[in-house]
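@channel sequence for tomorrow's demo:
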Amino acid sequence: MSRTARTAPPGRTAVAAACTAAFLALGPLPAAAGAAGPLPVDSGGAPVPVEPGPGKEAGGWQGEGLSLNAADNRAADAFLDRARRAERSISPQIRATARLSGAELVGFDARLKSPDSLKRKVATSMEEKPGRTVEQALARINDSVRYTLQWPDARYTRGVTFAATTLADWGNSTVKWSNTWGREKGYKAVNSAWAAPRSGHVFEVQFHTPAGKQAQLRTHKLYEEQRLPSTSPTRAQELQREQDRIFAAVPVPEGAAALQPPAEVAARPGATASGRGAEVTAPVR
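structure tokens (generated this afternoon):
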């Protein structure tokens, strides 16, 4: 880790100066996977209709037994477009934070959630709770823009503390903080969500160790199958047991279970405040 990352987190002015220097050193951002630019629009700025495939509603979406009607699909596309625009100002801060804290920035090219993945998540949310609107389902999504910062076990706790404090000092507001290191079973990491200062768009930052990240990758397909509405309760239990077995081998870094969000936080409207102000939860992921 760099000399800067070993010291106590600097004040707001020092962080701003350090991040500015880091921005200049990093150079232009690589394109995110699937980020081919804004959605196609006509001369009046309206989305161009997508021709339906066999069995699909015109302008709608279907996948893995789930579907969105045309209006809900347009709302999801508009949300994706907002995410793409917000990412342009979020990513430089994340790259600077990683550099200052000595973190490895893992999977940066996949920082934008794919359209199919987001729409599957929206459709699942609406199916799980009949009556939930597409706007309500979209408001629950934290990871349309997402990042992973990773440190070796010995530097993990200090690295997370430094990175989270830096993001808060840069003006990002913590809206969710899920620390699962203290759980006996299941996923082990800190998953956080932040509201960007310029756009207000919520993005996710996962804080991992190498072993924890590898366990997450190994269990990803199990987790995705477990969340599908079509998965039976018996099968869901089997999938959870297999995930628990894999995560049981992940070492817990010293002090990781006690990690809390930064002191200066502001929960987004509707969030349940606890801990130091952010919504503190412990989901499966």
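heads up for whoever presents: The chain is about 40% helix and 15% strand.
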